[in-house]
Amino acid sequence: MELAQVAIEYMIMIPILIAQIFLFPMVASAMMNNWVDSRRTIVIQEVASNLSSSMQQLYSSLNHETISAGTVTNELDLPRYIEDYPYKGNASLRTIGSNGSRILEITLSYVGDDISTTALATFGANMEWMNSTFLSNSTSAGIIAEKQLNGTIRMYFG
């Protein structure tokens, strides 16, 4: 009777142990991938927020009436790579409200990965956006703003 009970226990426990040998690494790998993706998402969201804030500050500086027409280039203090991934960005401008306020929607994404994020920046009615692409590993990665004689501020990625 004792021998039969041990044999039954082995018949139950051996498949469970074998399953654990395969399941534990798979579950650990899935959890790590999820953690890495979450960390990358948080970092690129922070970069998008900094980019949005820099654009708003540049616009606010040029929008003052004491600033004459001209071009300003803002070389950003953003990382060129995030965990060995360069990232790229695009933006689109849309008008909201009856006062002509504008919102610039900035989308950043990793090159070679599916992770992307969006940040918004609010501007006045005199802001224009020129379609351009931001490349983090470019030597000229930055923001260019041109204030024109009529007070219009045209911005684009350099």
Q: What brief labels describe this structure?
A:
158 residues, alpha+beta, 4-stranded mixed sheet, 8 strands, 39% helix, 30% strand
User: Quick one: overall form?
Assistant: rod-shaped
Q: Structural class of the helices, strands and pairings?
A: alpha+beta
Report the order of strands and helices. HEEEEEEEE
Q: Strand count, sense and closure of the main sheet?
A: 4 strands, mixed
Mean pLDDT: 91
State the helicity in percent bands. 25-40%
CA distance, first residue to last residue: 82 Å
Q: Strand portion, in percent?
A: 25-35%
Oligomer: single chain
Strand order in space, largest sheet: 1-7-8-5
Write down the domain tally. Answer: 1
Q: Total strand count, please?
A: 8
Low-confidence stretches: none
Radius of gyration: 26 Å
Tally the helices: 1
Provide a brief overview of the structure.
This protein has one helix at about 1-60, and strands spanning about 70-75, 85-95, 100-110, 115-125, 125-130, 135, 140-145, 155. It is α+β, with helices and mostly antiparallel strands. It has one domain (about 10-155).
Verbal overview:
This protein has 158 residues and is of the alpha+beta class. It has one helix and eight strands, in the order αββββββββ. It has one helix spanning 2-62, and strands at 70-75, 87-95, 102-110, 116-123, 127-129, 134-135, 142-147, 153-157. The protein has a four-stranded mixed β-sheet with strand order 1-7-8-5, with helices on one face. A hairpin with a 5-residue loop joins β3 (102-110) and β4. The protein is rod-shaped and about 95 Å long. The termini are far apart.
